[in-house]
Structure formats: C-alpha cells, structure tokens
Design a protein that fits this description.
four-stranded mixed sheet, alpha/beta, 2,3-Dihydroxybiphenyl 1,2-Dioxygenase, domain 1, single chain
C-alpha cells in the first residue's frame, strides 16, 4: 500500500491541553488522529491529525515558553482555514464545532467573494475558519 500524500504546508499548534484539542478537532471539525507520541508525564509531545490530504501537527506547551522539545516559541492564537466541498458542510461543521466547545466568531454566511464561510474559536483560543470558497478557483 502506497503512503498517503499530504500537503507540504502543515500548521503546527501548541496547546496547554493537547488531549482536549485532539478531542475538539476530531469531534468538532472532523479530523482523524493519524499519530500520537506522548512525552513526560503522559502529555502529548506530538500528534498528527488529518483531514483529507491536510494535516495539523500539535503538541503540549510545557508552560515555560518552550515546547516539549525545548524550542523557544512565542505564544498566541493561530488562525487556520479549513476548506470544505459544499456550503452545507460549512453549516454542519460549525454546528459540530459549537457542540464540541467552540465559541462563535462568525456564524455561517454566504461571502461576497464566493462560497460560504464561518469562523469559530477553539477552547484554547485558536481560530478555525471553515469555508467552501476555494482560493485556487479565484478569478
């Protein structure tokens, strides 16, 4: 069986509670857990979650301004755009994200530039925009 091809661009996110983040992304936005590696004390050192050919990397913030591998990284929320196939999927993912603990930033609506979109904030403060607009289809 051939290895699956993934996008060469993968967001890497740090969470104080990576277990909660994984549950949110799986239940709320339809990701699948591809891999998980625990570090000291059973916390998630590194996890890989997939959706289609996209992948998000995440891990637990050690709480001292460093990731578990000792690299200094600034804190702050990330913003990620999740492209879906159909307008109805925007509404469905928005609803499941809200049920999984998201906060609404922008409810689903048709966009002036095409497609339908919504934005939620996950329990850790990261922004997830969900949209049927595909940038490659822009004129």
């Amino acid at each position: 069986m051939a290895a699956m091809e993934f996008s060469p661009v993968m967001p890497a996110l740090r969470y104080r509670d990576a277990d909660t983040a994984i549950r949110f992304l799986v239940q709320g936005l339809g990701f699948k857990q591809h891999a998980r590696y625990d570090g000291p004390n059973g916390v998630v050192a590194h996890a890989e979650l997939t959706r289609g050919t996209g992948m998000v990397l995440l891990g637990t913030d050690a709480g001292d301004g460093k990731a578990l591998d000792g690299v200094e990284l600034e804190r702050g929320p990330a913003a990620t755009y999740l492209v879906v196939e159909a307008d109805a999927e925007v509404d469905a993912l928005y609803a499941s994200a809200m049920q999984a603990g998201a906060t609404s930033v922008s409810a689903p609506k048709n966009q002036d530039y095409g497609g339908r979109g919504a934005t939620v904030r996950d329990p850790a403060g990261n922004y997830w925009s969900i949209g049927s607009y595909k940038p490659s289809s822009a004129k």
